[in-house]
Design brief:
Elements lengths: L35 H9 L19 H11 L22 H9 L9 E9 L5 E8 L8 H14 L25 H13 L18 H15 L2
Antiparallel strand pairs: 1-2
């Protein structure tokens, strides 16, 4: 079982957290969808938003930045002030920069999700030094299912303390017919995410690790993480 060391939008048209609750939410494009009940439940609580007041677009894609924001907000990990040169390819004007900066400071972004990964040493005025990631997060590209599973488990696990860490279920392996297609860097953490029940397979016993994640899949994971956080 793998544990990382803890040392280590509100934009129209995207899935996002919102602390205010809505009295009622009605989306015209979720009727009969497999995630209809979950979407209605979380949207009604103000946890997620649609792409408009009447559409949720459940089968639309989710970007890396959007999912990172969702997971950090649902687990109540605070943002961090953007620091030039220490936030990969994000600029101070990017809406997701405070979330990415915080995730980087906490070691929550795996190097395999950073294009051109490297490390530079920053020396402070007091003479102390710190290692800073270099490369590109590419927050605006669609997130894959294995990346979504990895970030879910890594971020949720980061929030556990000595007592709640013991409630994590052990991963006994995965029996998907395409398990071999899951990237080696993500495999153990994806297995843990599956063991917790955060993410499941697709039809015909396939996980489809490289397939882009949908808004419906993302909101389902958010719902499961919320439930797990209450335990």
């Amino acid at each position: 079982m793998k544990f990382r060391k803890t040392a280590a939008l509100l934009l129209a048209g995207v899935l996002t957290m919102n602390i205010s609750a809505f009295a009622s939410v009605s989306f015209v494009d979720i009727g009969g969808h497999w995630a209809e009940t979950t979407i209605k439940n979380l949207a009604g609580k103000g946890v997620v938003k649609g792409v408009s007041s009447t559409r949720f677009n459940p089968d639309g894609n989710v970007t890396r930045a959007e999912f990172l924001k969702m997971m950090m907000e649902v687990t109540k990990i605070p943002t961090a002030t953007y620091r030039y040169g220490q936030c990969l390819d994000a600029s101070g004007g990017d809406w997701f920069a405070p979330y990415l900066q915080s995730a980087l400071d906490r070691g929550l972004i795996p190097q395999d999700m950073i294009a051109g990964y490297g490390v530079k040493i920053i020396k402070s005025e007091d003479g102390s030094t710190r290692a800073v990631y270099e490369g590109a997060f590419n927050g605006n590209i669609s997130i894959s299912r294995e990346e979504m599973a990895y970030l879910t488990q890594e971020i949720f696990q980061y929030t556990r303390n000595a007592r709640t860490m013991s409630t994590l279920k052990v991963a006994d392996g995965m029996e998907f017919s395409d398990s071999a297609l899951i990237s080696s860097w993500a495999y153990d953490t994806v297995a843990l995410a599956c063991a917790q029940g955060f993410i499941t397979g697709m039809g015909d016993n396939r996980f489809e690790p490289k397939q882009t994640a949908t808004r419906a899949q993302a909101v389902t994971i958010v719902s499961r993480v919320l439930e797990a956080a209450e335990q």
